[in-house]
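About this split. The held-out portion is used to measure sequence recovery: a designer receives only the structure tokens and must propose an amino acid at every position. Recovery is the fraction of positions where the proposal matches the reference. Here is one held-out target exactly as it appears in the evaluation file.
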């Protein structure tokens, strides 16, 4: 009987020790790779903050897939590839050198991130056919970003107040050459 009690207490100690080790190691395993939702949110923030807000094309190269597509529903579904999107981001940054993009709302479902954003900047250089106005401009939009393997594959976007980017002629102030 004493042998059985001694053996039972040693097994209990071993089980408790094993459970403690598993509990200590479990958070390390979970934290080793960030959840997809956090990674996708960070990609969205880099896309709008660094690529469009700062014109940082190195970040663009790092976070956009080679076959990236940007579909602009506010311009009859105009589709840009990676190079055209980077050109557009650089063009906007050059025309509104102090441009900032603010993410107003963000929702994530699987590999899709829905972003409601606001852009603000001073039109301090030619934008399309319209010379600099040196006036502040605000425009808003909504974008759906699709992610795959830690990169952005597509953006489907819609500008909500395109009139903020229209000149007196009523023509979109973006240069047609941006659709590369």
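Reference sequence for scoring:
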């Amino acid at each position: 009987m004493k042998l059985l009690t001694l053996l039972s207490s040693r097994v209990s100690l071993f089980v408790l020790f094993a459970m403690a080790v598993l509990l200590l190691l479990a958070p390390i395993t979970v934290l080793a790779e960030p959840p997809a939702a956090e990674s996708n949110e960070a990609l969205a923030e880099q896309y709008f903050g660094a690529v469009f807000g700062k014109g940082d094309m190195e970040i663009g190269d790092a976070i956009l897939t080679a076959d990236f597509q940007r579909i602009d529903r506010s311009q009859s579904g105009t589709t840009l590839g990676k190079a055209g999107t980077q050109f557009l981001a650089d063009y906007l940054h050059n025309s509104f050198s102090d441009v900032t993009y603010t993410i107003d709302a963000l929702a994530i479902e699987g590999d899709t991130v829905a972003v409601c954003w606001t852009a603000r900047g001073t039109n301090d250089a030619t934008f399309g056919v319209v010379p600099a106005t040196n006036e502040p401009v605000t425009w808003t939009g909504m974008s759906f970003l699709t992610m795959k393997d830690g990169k952005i594959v597509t953006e489907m976007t819609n500008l909500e107040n395109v009139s903020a980017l229209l000149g007196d002629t009523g023509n979109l102030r973006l240069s047609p050459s941006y659709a590369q």
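Annotator remark: The first helix runs from residue 2 to 31.
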